[in-house]
Amino acid sequence: GAVVSQHPSWVICKSGTSVKIECRSLDFQATTMFWYRQFPKQSLMLMATSNEGSKATYEQGVEKDKFLINHASLTLSTLTVTSAHPEDSSFYICSARDLGRGGGYEQYFGPGTRLTVT
Amino acid sequence: DAKTTQPTSMDCAEGRAANLPCNHSTISGNEYVYWYRQIHSQGPQYIIHGLKNNETNEMASLIITEDRKSSTLILPHATLRDTAVYYCIVRVAEETSGSRLTFGEGTQLTVNP
After folding, report:
1. Which of A70, A99, A115, B74 fits B61 for a cystine, CB–CB 3.0-4.6 Å?
2. What is the pLDDT of residues B75-109, one digit of tens each?
3. Residue to test with chain B: of A24, A106, A108, A113, most B Cβ within 10 A
4. How far apart, in whole angstroms, are the C-alpha atoms of residue B68 and residue A27?
């Protein structure tokens, strides 16, 4: 199956610093990638949708200046949490849509990145 | 995308079939039913999807009622590793600006030894 990787798998940072999370599609090209956030005991919440070479579309309530998304190539998207605060501590999951398989446009998910802001 | 309703939790004995129901009474004709699962602290894993016919793959079977208002995911021989939150999601399949997966609360399946 299609593989999506994320790096790092976990990160601890101090309040006020910025953190970059990478998402890569390893064996397919993804024109569209998605970023989700998941708090403990809650479901995944879509943060933004990014298309390669264009600006990301953010869901209502998500601060685009705080969560910077770059989708510079068909296999790489990055999420930068700027000036992180403890309330940004969460599980961040990326997803990539594979256009080449069966017409169903399945989304494949990365393993997630656990961010802890102290 | 149509809304789905799933039970909050279910239990199943190891080795038995696990049948997870999902209601999607407002599904539209061009919307597919997708199933994903999420094992604790991991990213969601794609299981199966279908439009109106029953589907089967190496992981599971998907049974969709004739009126498409509900479906059942079947894990034929559940193992302890199948313990996870299972999400039933309805969405259009084609590449459109609004086509993306949005997750509800899902069903916590616990497989007991």
Report:
1. B74
2. 999 999 999 999 999 987 665 555 678 899 999 99
3. A106
4. 34
Please, what sign has the CA dihedral across residues B11, B84, A108, A19? positive
Instruction: For residue B71, give Cα distances in angstroms to A61, A80, B54, B78, B110.
Output: 32, 39, 9, 18, 20
Nearest-CA distance A76 → chain B (Å): 17
Is B46's Cβ below 8 Å from some Cβ in A? yes
- Closest CA–CA distance from residue A83 to any residue of chain B (Å): 25
Residue of B30, B101, B102 to mutate when probing chain A, most A C-beta within 10 A = B101
Under 8 Å between Cβ of B60 and B79: no
Per the CB < 8 A criterion, the answer to whether A19 and A84 are in contact is yes
| Strands A67-73 vs A32-38: parallel, antiparallel or unpaired | unpaired
Any CB–CB contact under 8 A between B52 and chain A? no
Q: What is the dihedral of CA A19, A25, A30, A32, to 10 degrees?
A: -30
The pLDDT tens digits of the residues spanning B3-47 come to: 899 999 999 999 999 999 999 999 988 889 999 999 998 999 999
Residue A92: which of A42, A27, A57, A47 has the closest Cα?
A: A47
pLDDT at A102 over 90: no
